[in-house]
Amino acid sequence: MEEEILIKLAQSGDRKALSEIVKKYEKTIYNFAFKICRNRERAEHTMQETFLSMIKSLDQFTGKSKLSTWLYTVVSNHCLMLMRANKKFENSASFDDDEALIDEKSITDWSVSPDKIMENSELKEILDTAINELPPDYKIVFMLRDVEGLSTEETGEITNLSVAAVKSRLHRARAFLRNKLNGALRYA
Amino acid sequence: MLNEKVSCHEVMNHICDNLGEDLNSPRCVAIKEHLDNCDSCQKYFKSVEDTIQFYKLYNVELPSESHKSLMKKLGLEE
After folding, report:
1. What CATH fold (topology level) applies to the domain A92-186?
2. pTM of whole model > 0.80?
3. Mutation choice for A interface testing from B54, B59, B60 by most A CBs within 10 A
């Protein structure tokens, strides 16, 4: 059944339609939340809060934006709230200097390719550690734009940032993560 | 304009700025030309692409218990 019809049915109280919508997006939302907080319990909690918010506000959904964009907005806000509660990111001054993030001297091939990620727990730990060092705003932008594949404009709409601000955060997040992985994955 | 000189540092900055965007300004063309002929910049480009790919491919399964718990919380158990 088309999503638009499912939404209308769910808005009129059809629980089967609502269940279909939840089933359609639960994996995406859980994965996104996990990728942001790198913790299964928090990902589950965030997924629950996201769908509770969705049900609470479903009547207000007009279809102006895609349901997926709306859900990404809700889950991103929940993730940001959780991360901002963590005082670790109060001072992200080192992210203000673009020039310092580009390191021309450490250019080399890497010892492992991305297709090995799911079979390598040490590698997963390296990725978790690196991304956990990113300030919340940067992490969300990187996840939405690069990992989920949303456009720069959609990412701006979800995060309430201008296109220029999205691009600036994306630049720094990419360079920062690349440097972190380069330190761990380059051939000695 | 096609002979515009760009440095490796500028190219690396450009990669982080514009990966995934299709840009055709004279400056972008100069940067692409530099990239085609510079081993260091090609390696940097690949490492940024791989960084994104690592995070794209690192997925987790939704545990069936989490699914059940969600449906219960939402009052949608079957």
Report:
1. Arc Repressor Mutant, subunit A (1.10.10)
2. yes
3. B54
